[in-house]
Amino acid sequence: xxxxxxxxxxFPEAARAATGDAQLRHNLRRATHTIRDKRAAVVGELDDWAxxxxxxxxxKDRTLRHLDxxxxxxxxxxxxxxxxxxxAADAAEANRVVTDLVLATGERDVVKVKSMATQxxxxxxxxxEAGITxxxxxxxxxxxxxxxxxxxxxxxxxxxxxxxxxxEIFRDRMAAWGAPAPDGLGDDPRALxxxxxxxxxxxxxxTRVAVSGANFAVAxxxxxxxxxxEGNGRMCLTLPDTLISVVGIEKLVPTWSDLEVFLQLLPRSxxxxxxxxxxxxxxxxxxxxxxxxxxxxxxxxxxxxxxADTVGRQALRCIRCSACLNICPVYERTGGHAYGSVxxxxxxxxxxxxxxxxxxxxxxxxxxxxxxxGACYEVCPVAIDIxxxxxxxxxxxxxxxxxxxxxxxxxxxxWVLGDRRRLDAAQRAASAARSLxxxxxxxxxxxxxxxxxxxxxxxxxxxxxxxxxxxxxxxAR
Amino acid sequence: MRIALFITCLNDTLFPxxxxxxxxxxxxxxxxxxxxxxQTCCGQMHxxxxxxxxxxxxxxxxVETFADADAVLVPSGSCAAMVRDxxxxxxxxxxxxxRAAAEVAPRVLDLTELxxxxxxxxxxxxxxxxxxxxxxxxxxxRLLGLGDRPYRLLRAVRGLELVELAxxxxxCGFGGTFAVKNPDVSAAMGADKARRVADTxxxxxxxxxxSCLMHIGGTLERAxxxxxVVHLAEILASTEEEPARI
Lengths: 477, 246
Fold this sequence. Notes:
The structure holds 2 protein chains of 2 kinds.
Chain A: H1 11-19, H2 22-44, H3 49-65, H4 67-80, E1 84-88, H5 91-105, E2 109-112, H6 116-120, H7 123-129, E3 133-136, H8 139-146, H9 163-177, H10 189-206, E4 209-212, E5 216-218, E6 223-228, H11 232-238, E7 242-248, E8 252-253, H12 256-270, E9 278-283, E10 293-299, H13 303-307, H14 323-327, H15 329-334, H16 345-356, H17 361-365, H18 375-379, H19 386-398, H20 404-417, H21 420-432, H22 446-449, H23 462-470
Parallel strand pairs in A: 1-10, 2-3, 2-4, 4-7, 5-8, 7-10
Antiparallel strand pairs in A: 5-6, 6-9
Helix pairs in contact in A: 3-12, 9-10, 16-19
Chain B: E1 2-5, H1 9-14, H2 16-28, E2 32-34, H3 44-49, H4 52-65, E3 72-73, H5 77-86, H6 96-104, E4 108-109, H7 111-118, E5 131-134, H8 138-143, H9 149-155, E6 161-163, H10 178-181, H11 183-199, E7 204-207, H12 210-222, E8 228-231, H13 232-237
Parallel strand pairs in B: 1-2, 1-3, 3-4, 5-6, 5-7, 7-8
Helix pairs in contact in B: 4-6, 11-12
């Protein structure tokens, strides 16, 4: 479990390697287009999608506006139902709480439901340091864990792998983690799923502690909700004695009736299904049924800072559906690892720099990892205007120390463009020297001419033509 | 109708033929084009790259220059979207820029909106005997919502065979400074777009934004793909008497 995003290069450099990886490009193209098309089909069949989307946005905004109230209501409801709520200001605190809770059970193994919050805080590493082994049970997370890899997608963390690669991973690595892969394992998806089922089943039956996240947390009743496809989450949520859930504070919704909106928005946006196969809900402890010790760790880890930013706070509406990843032409060509965070793609490009700040090279590059094409905003089920937040974060980064040269160049361009006489003079100079224009530009300009020809500089600018045509004094209003 | 032309700094400097085509087309249709000479740049590059203050200065110039215009034609989808979509959130709420932007933004039109919605014409009497495919640029598609207007205009052009572009809604990878800040991804996106353009068998790729065309065209040309890129205005300006040179 040594894999980590720490120390990875910033996006442009990571993307250079990724765009050159033909196998990765092929895997990503196939996978993203398949999910993209499925989503478009199931979203297209609803007449009231725009209304649902507006409702999802409104519910999240209302909850975030009064988050303090809903969080306390949630805590009271969980406590009343026999669960225990813990508050964690940051990753270290959350990891410490979970580790202590596991150690207190005397167990040294935990099974995990797929969870972005625990990936964000790198819980598995923290548990390992305390001598506790966390076993991922989501099929894609299992693939990532077995291969000592990193997740590259929010919904499908092993999207960068094809089935031949998965077969290799199962064959070579399963035995080290538990039940080995069967002899003669092929790369048929059913055979691969069966191998994973056998491998995981004995783990479910043996392990007494589970760790999960939650897709939603209902404030009124203290209920946690997990949506999944495989049923492996349901195994973890029902079989163990102890269940610990790490939940970002933005996961709150006020009431069960608010869930109605999201249980329609999420599956259609994420897996492209009308309804996901398994929706599990639990409220504290039910005597004699399921885990008898239930903990909820409410995680801040930068979220209240995001909430304080009037433009950026809309990122907290995110329900982690991945529609923006699947539609993104940039993500499709780089995959998730290039984003240097467990949150890749367009939402990662606005979430990571907000949660971690823009001080580091990885974080500072992320707001620029987009052509601002707007496809992400178009598909977002809670209408996060990702391009708006990207530009907002670019302003923050561009004002920083790393951008002095660019700031000077932009200032100079602004000066030339700020007056028609200066612009006219620059255009005349360019036209006069047009025969000298090089085919390959030096310095930063090479980033253009390495792969693209330059347009020919015209003999005269439009304004010069207009003046000639209209005669002096004409046309100027 | 009297139409104020905002040529855009890129068209002004590098693609004057697009501006000339716009003028020829609108005059042919019986309208008067004016060119307020104080105009320079809408500030899109500065705004999108994170230089709001520079963008605000350019926006102030724009709204002052076009304060009296009834209709402002912007023959660039992304620049039109910059004014219409971003100007209203560029100035501080209640500031002079904010008020002026709210005034001028609704009068800003892309060429296809001006023709189809305001002037009520889809057959502009053009002649362009070539196979053409159309790339709906992201800002035209998603921010301006141009919809089928460009296709309706193209279908009415005599001699023109319009062929469908696969994956048309996908970004070409230009993205302004994105093209140089993330050159590898931009090139990868450009290569895919160029391949799909070439696959149509069209002689000409057209769009309503020369910035995207500069990127796709530069990619096609580097590959010697044998496809020309042309702004839609040049196709619509082309007639039997004065055909566009491609």
